[in-house]
Amino acid sequence: MTETTKARKTREPVPHIAAALALGDDALVLSHRLGEWAGHAPVLEEEVALANIALDLLGQARVLLSMAGDEDELAYLREERAFRNVQLVEQPNGDFAHTIARQLYFSTYQRLLYAHLAAGDGEFAGLAAKAVKEVAYHQDHAEQWTLRLGDGTEVSHERMRRACQALWRFTGEMFQPVEGLDVDGEGIRAVWLESVSAVLRQATLDVPEGPQSGAWSAGAGRQGLHTEPFGRMLAEMQHLHRSHPGASW
Amino acid sequence: MATAAHRIARTREEDSPADEAALAAAYEAAFDAAVAADERIEPRDWMPDAYRATLVRQIAQHAHSEIIGMQPEANWITRAPSLRRKAILMAKVQDEAGHGLYLYSAAETLGTSRDELLDKLHSGRQKYSSIFNYPTLTWADVGAIGWLVDGAAITNQVPLCRCSYGPYARAMVRICKEESFHQRQGYELLQALSRGTPEQHEMAQDAVNRWWWPSLMMFGPPDDQSQHSAQSMTWKIKRHSNDELRQRFVDICVPQAESLGLTLPDPDLRWNEERGHYDFGEIDWTEFREVLKGNGPCNEQRITQRRAAHDEGTWVREAAAAYAEKHTAKDITKDRSKDITKDGAKDGETTA
Using CB atoms within 10 A of its CB, is residue A158 exposed (0-12), middle (13-18) or buried (19+)? Predict the structure, then answer.
């Protein structure tokens, strides 16, 4: 037996790459979108808060992508069709209400998912146990702002209503099965819906109507089908790294 | 808010003007003695109006510089070339927002609100550091800002940790700790580029060429032309002259540039054995004054983005205020009814 095969045999089982990519890409892409707020936030406290959330997500992304390979190669050298994030997280920031609606939908899902993973003994349990505490803050931040915007002024109510409605059709994808993750998607969907509905009602907003997925896009992001704004986001994110092949930074 | 001095002054309203003048002189003497003895002046202490105004101006300008200074660096967050660098840069820009928060709070202790100061920034009545009117054209500029701009800021700010005004001095202790981390990351970023591919090295050298002279200008005009220096030195708001600090900065940077393998764009830069310092070339003060007047490459862009962020955020701030008002009002009503049922005699306290 050669040294290499021996090493391979005694090594820990490789983490499930598809699952690490799916969760890692969610965190990477949402972190990037939140990073776009820097210098544009509506109030100084939100500069700090949004950067904080972006940094937590980037930290999670780095751990997850490193489970699947080299973090920078994966972030900077994959083509759009190789990314496995849900379409929700790649949606442009829009106004502050859209960002908050996206945060509310995603952090509620991510908290449920991580809580489930943290309770198990799978390869993501360690990361999830740490991340679930961060995500609890993200969810709280999103819920507090949903209440303020929904139950604030007429203008903010209308903006928040529109944002929740516009992003609703991207929420179904989060509950599709992910290869390598032993998660009851439908179970999570039910708890998610209850949690989000309660916040929206308290914020004097209606729970959006209509399907939670587009006609042909259920689970599409997880299969590498994305929306148009995502290509531009990646172009910006990857251009410098790709302009200097092999360079280290 | 009444200071001790004002309270005493008010009880003596019937005293003659001569007595009042004597009292004011006594307060001024006590203030001068405290400053001379290196004691801290605190928000409730009596202070001369001009001291207060100078501090508000300086702290506001510093706070504005932090939040405008987020822009040139945030310009590269979405393009950072590795995830590690992206995390460091995001954390740095976040720190700057945090510094803005402490500094606006320090200014509030002098009786000036954040809204009032932001309004002055947006309408051009208060300034921010001119250095941020230069553009970040390449990734290496992020490194040059950390190494040179934050380096110059630290040289300026470390003495402020001993500033006579307590809240400002304490804010500066924390800020300087974080700034020194920023300076190191800038140096380390440039080091990676300087030792990288020829293109990366060139990128680093180009950035240093563009940022070196504006960084020297950050210390302000030469001592003999500085408007506010003398009084600020007496009040111990400022501890060293502009030229002294500038020299200190040059002396620190020259050996650092050498170990980075980068050159500083000044043919006159050489060690002067006699002075024990580096001599350096003439600064282009015309450029400095032009940028200060608004003719820098990014003056318009920076303030436009700042105003846009503020204006576009108005509806969000209004929503938060409306929500707080609705819910505080409800909470107070709830608390009141609880108090009344628990302790009917509570009202008595307010009249005591």
Answer: middle
What number is the ipTM of this complex?
A: 0.93
Q: Under 8 Å CB-to-CB from B76, ≥6 apart: which residues?
A: B89, B136, B139, B141, B142
Location of structure tokens 């599409």: A220
Q: Determine, yes or no, domain membership for A236.
A: yes
Domain of residue A99: give its range. Answer: 14-243
Provide the token pair at B110: 């002098």
Is residue A176 in some structural domain? yes
Note whether residue A3 is domain-resident: no
Helix, strand, or coil here: B270? strand
Q: What does the alpha-carbon distance between residue B28 and residue B40 come to, in Å, rounded to a whole number? A: 15
Q: Does A66 touch chain B (CB under 8 A)?
A: no
User: Would you call A39 an interface residue with chain B, using a CB distance cutoff of 8 Å?
Assistant: yes
Mutate to test the interface with B, among A43, A95, A141 (most CBs of B within 10 A): A43
Quote the pLDDT of residue A15: 55
CA distance B100 to A234: 31
Phi, psi at residue B38, to the nearest 5°?
A: 65, 30
Least confident range of A1-15, A106-120, B13-27: A1-15
Question: Phi, psi at residue B279, to the nearest 5°?
Answer: -80, 150
Nearest to B305 among A35, A39, A95 (CB): A39
Q: How far are the Cα atoms of A189, B133, B239, B245, B247 from residue B218, in angstroms, in the given order?
A: 56, 12, 16, 10, 12
In total, how many domains does chain A have?
1
Which CATH number belongs to the domain containing residue A222 in this structure?
1.20.1260.10
Which one of A25, A46, A71, A156 makes the best mutation probe of the B interface by having the most chain B beta carbons within 10 Å? A156
By the 8 A CB rule, do B185 and B146 touch?
yes
DSSP state of A14: P
Residue appearing with tokens 């106004």: A95
Residue A233 placed within a domain? yes
Which two structure tokens, joined as six digits, stand for A181?
Answer: 């993750």
Q: Which residues are bridge partners to B165 per DSSP? A: B41
Q: What is the dihedral of CA A112, A113, A115, A116, to 10 degrees?
A: 120
Q: What is the pLDDT of residues B289-344, one digit of tens each?
A: 999 999 999 999 999 999 999 999 999 999 999 999 999 877 666 665 555 444 44
Does residue A151 belong to the interface with chain B, where contact is any CB pair within 8 Å?
A: yes
Closest CA relative to residue B187, chosen from B76, B277, B99, B88: B88
On whether any CB of chain A is under 8 Å from the CB of B70, the answer is: yes
- Distance between CA A45 and CA A100 in Å, rounded? 15
SS3 B12: coil
CA distance B94 to B92: 5
